[in-house]
Amino acid sequence: MIGMGNPVQTLPISAAALREVDLIGVFRYAGVYREALEIIAENPSLMMMVTRRFAGLAEINRAFDVASKPYDEDGSMNLKVLIDFEDDA
User: Which residues, other chains included, contact 55 with Cβ-Cβ below 8 Å and sequence gap of 6+?
Assistant: First the structure.
């Protein structure tokens, strides 16, 4: 998955070709959330894509700030940022 945060996205195409990965472009996400959740539920190892986690509304500004950058202050890649609202009932 590649977000639309920047007009130019960098993709290691040779690594994808080597692994015979199929790349499919999609502009909108309508109707795919249920399927995506099912895929993740069936393959818990996909959660390794989550590179940063934040808890609730108190951290939402920080989460969006981190998600807007390809790397965090330590130089680690920000692949997927998750905001957990489970405790914000």
Answer: 83, 84, 87
